[in-house]
Structure formats: C-alpha cells, structure tokens
C-alpha cells in the first residue's frame, strides 16, 4: 500500500509539474503573442499603412501645392502682372485651363498693384484691408514662407467651404507682386480621407502645428478642437507635435482600449498626419485561443502563425527587392528611383544643398547587339553598371534609366564637381576593355550634366540633362556637355 501511495505521489508530482509547465508555457505564449501583435502593429503594420497613406496624400492632397507652385513661378502669369494686367481674357483663359487640366474647384490670382482678384470666370472683386474676408491675402503677403494651406469660404463658388493653397508670387527681382493658387472643396478632401479609412481600416485625420484638428473624414465628424482636449490623445499630444517628418509611433489608452498612433509632420501642408489603430480587436482572437484551446493545439497554432509570418515577411522583402531593382544590372529601376528622387529633392530644398544629375548612354550600342547578339550587349550593360558604381560615391544613386541609358543622382554635389565626375565616368568607359574583337571600335559614352534649380520641376531638371546628352551626341559623342547653370526652373 505504501508502494502504491509513493507511486501515486510521484505520478501526482510529475502530473503537477507537467500541468504547471504546460500552463506556464500556454500563459507565457499568450503574453508573448499579445505583445508580439502590439509590437508588430507598432513596428510594421502601422508604419507601413502610414507610408501608404502618405503616398496617397502626396498624390491627392500635396498635388495642389505643386500646382500652385507652378502657377506662382509661371513666367506668363508674372509677366502679365508686371506688364500691367491689360488683357483680362488672357489671365481668365490661363486660370480656366489650369482649373480644367488639374480638376481644381477654383483657381485664382490677386494682384498687389491693383488689388484685383481674378478667377477662372474673370474679375471677381478688389481685395481691401477693411474686408474681413480678405484678411488671408494680407496674412500671406506678410508671411515668410512661400505658401499656406487655408480652409475658407470661396466667394467664386457660392461660399462653399474650400481648402485653398495660397502661394506668394514674386517678380524676377524677388519683389512681392501678388498671390496665386488653387482650391479644393472641403467635401472633396473629407471624401478622400473617408476613402483612405475604408481602404486601410484606420482612423485618419490632420492637425495643424498647434494641435488643432483641421481635416477629418465624415465618419469622424465628432472629433474636433485641439488634440490637447481629446480624451486619451491628450496624454501624448506633446509627443505628437514634434515637427518630425519621420513617422513617430505612439500609444495611449482610451475606454479600456489600446490605441496605437503613427504621427508624421508634412512640411508641405504644415500639418501633421495622424493614423490611429485600435488593437483591442486584434488581441481578442488570441484570448479566445487561450481560453478554448488550453492544450497543445494553442502552441501548434502559434507556431503556424509564427512560420506564416516569417514566410510572408520574407516573401514581401523579396518582392520589394525585385520591384525596386533592375534584374540585369542590379541597379535601382526607374520606378524605385522616382521615390528616392522625390526625397532627395525635399532634402536639397530643405537643407539648401546642391543636387546634380548625370544622364548618359552608350554610343552606337545598337551595333553591339546587331553584331554580337543581346547576350554580349547584356554583359556590357552589366560592366557599365559596375564601372559607374565604382566611379561615384556610396551616397550617390545609380539607376538604369532605360535601354542603354543610365542616370546618376549626386547629392550635395555642385555642377562643377558633377561635371568632373561625369568626365571620370566617360574616361573609365572609354578605357575599359569590353572584350570585343580588335577590329571593333572601343565603346564610348555621351554624357549630359545638370544641377537642380530651386523649385524646378523634375521634368525640367531631367529635360535639361537629356538636352545636354543630346547635344553631346550631336557634337560627335564620347564627350560631356554641361547644362547651363543660368537656366531657371521651367514652367508648364
């Protein structure tokens, strides 16, 4: 009997140890899984969603800012104002074409000399200091920044609430001559935010640099005022208003719910983009698994989830790499380069540092393909890519622009240094042995160099580089042509 008692005691002890170990493992797995979900949302899902939404904002909301900038720097509009504003039909047609071409609700221009307010239908009125509705004009006139984003009523559109982009106009000597810009209806903007929220399943809204909510979707009409007065959000308000253009990941509690937020300052709007996600619902399935599957199945489930997450992340990284890389040369492709270029432009303008580009292609490359086949041509393109990467700095960006054309983006590089670097690339290509028959001419390259001008459009920037490349070819090839540094930003 004592033996049986000791046996059962041992079995009970082992059982307790096993059950205790199993429960400990299950509880630990639940806690780890819960924290992993939170961490994954903070570090991966929410930032990725914020980046996607920011890309949409750039396309849908920042686009009017670029349009207003083009208008403010348009030589026709400036010359028309400087010339005395003699032909009303000219400016009316101009504003009407901009309005229709870019699908704006309104386009306008106010002259400092005459105080005339022009819009797409003609002369609307004269602005004056005694008119409360004209306060915006005198505010923009005295501000130091180039433009502002303002929500106001539009007199030319039945007093509809409109998001205006008001851009200062300067003459060629830098003197203030008026304000121009475009407008989108507030309903258009709120509808855009609603579409973002439905697509990404996140709460999305904008606040100004003082924390006042400026724009939210129709589904968030109850949210208004300052974030310093919002329950929950007020606890992280100071961390949100940090002027950081990189996303800031934050967390707060509200009504027993865990809310995660990604905050990003958008200098072009002078607003913050806030993206919120309630992760309470994301944790509920794990709790259900914990209570229902208090057995080995819970561990298996978490294992499968972990493996699946690993596979998806790995596959996603591979897709992102493939999507952004030219498969032949291993350089950035044109699509990925456009994203990098936009960031380089913003950095160049913000820090006032030079930005240059070298556009070049291989002389008579078609003859190589015709005489030796495309495999030889592909090998030469790979050699060209290697030569170029070896010639430039690590911070410089080399991309295959298309066919036998290559583009090098040179950050913090003035035109003179860019020209010297282009000559170095030309010389390295001309002196390289591409293992072609001795009877063949040695391969050479023609190169065009341009430096980015402040507020220049990307079409004008690369157009000047392309024009210099074309000149290099027309003058005999195997040479470097530098775009004139006196060329100013092109207009549309």
Describe this structure in words.
- This protein has 492 residues and is α+β, with helices and mostly antiparallel strands.
- It is 48% helix and 22% strand.
- Among the domains are: 63-187, PAS domain (Beta-Lactamase, 2-Layer Sandwich), CATH 3.30.450.20; 334-482, 2-Layer Sandwich (Alpha-Beta Plaits).
- It has helices at residues 2-60, 63-72, 75-82, 88-101, 135-142, 186-200, 237-240, 280-292, 296-324, 334-351, 365-372, 374-391, 415-430, 458-474; strands at 106-111, 116-119, 122-126, 147-154, 160-170, 176-185, 203-208, 213-216, 248-254, 257-266, 271-278, 355-362, 397-402, 405-411, 445-451, 480-482.
- A 6-stranded antiparallel sheet has the order 3-2-1-6-5-4, sandwiched between helices. The protein has a 5-stranded antiparallel sheet with strand order 8-7-11-10-9. The chain has a 5-stranded mixed sheet with strand order 13-14-12-15-16, sandwiched between helices.
- A hairpin with a 4-residue loop joins strand 10 and strand 11.
- The N and C termini lie far apart (101 Å).
- Mean pLDDT is 80; it is low at 300-309 and 487-492.
Shape: flat
Low-confidence parts: 300-309, 487-492
Radius of gyration: 30 Å
Arithmetic mean of pLDDT: 80
CATH-defined architecture of the domain at 334-482:
2-Layer Sandwich
Total number of beta strands: 16
What is the CATH homologous superfamily assignment of the domain at 334-482? Reverse transcriptase/Diguanylate cyclase domain
Task: Enumerate how many helices there are, as a single number.
Answer: 14
The CA-CA distance between the termini, in Å, is 101 Å
How much helicity do the residues have? 40-55%
